[in-house]
Amino acid sequence: MAIDTLLGRLEGVRQTGPCTWRARCPAHDSKGLTLSVREIDGNRVLLHCFAGCDTNDVLAAIGLEMSDLMSARVGDYFKPERMPFPVSDVLRCVAFEGLVIVHSGITLMNGLPFSQEDRERLMLATQRIQAALTASGVGHG
Asked: In the chain, N or C terminus with fewer CB closer than 10 Å?
């Protein structure tokens, strides 16, 4: 499958570098460009949703399967990517989630009400930062 076919099924596509794009993830309701797309060697495509969506769910939402991301035969060996996502994409994600954490801290410091929804969003921010660390190839702690 050509990368153009995949990108044509996504919304909000923006090229962020050579062979790398960001788009809205079709597997969840988000206005942000949380889906990272990277073409490798002209025959493989890597997808990662920084909101935590499973790759199979992303593909199902646009009518594709995992096999559509590779042009090579099943069973061919590919060397694992050392760092599958551009650092700039990971840093953008971490920066946004950091703002969520700062806002939460300010809210608590000012003694303002902190709802269950606020708690859940704060937990999601920490999970997304951990996912960004994993996606970037950086170990935890």
From this structure: C
Query: For residue range 29-61, what is the model confidence (pLDDT) as tens digits?
Result: 878 899 999 988 777 888 999 888 888 999 999
**Could you read off the pLDDT of 113-126 as tens digits, one per residue?**
889 998 999 998 88
- Whether residue 62 contacts residue 10, with contact meaning beta carbons closer than 8 Å, is answered with yes
Question: 3-state DSSP call for residue 141?
Answer: coil
Longest CA pairwise span in the chain (Å): 59
Residue carrying structure tokens 């760092």 = 83
Residues 6+ apart with CB under 8 A from 18: none
Distance CA 99, CA 4 (A): 33
Residue with tokens 């590919």: 78
Cβ-count burial of 85 within 10 angstroms (0-12 exposed, 13-18 middle, 19+ buried)? buried
Going by C-alpha positions, the residue among 62, 126, 31 that lies closest to residue 23 is 31
Q: According to the model, what pLDDT value does residue 37 have? A: 92
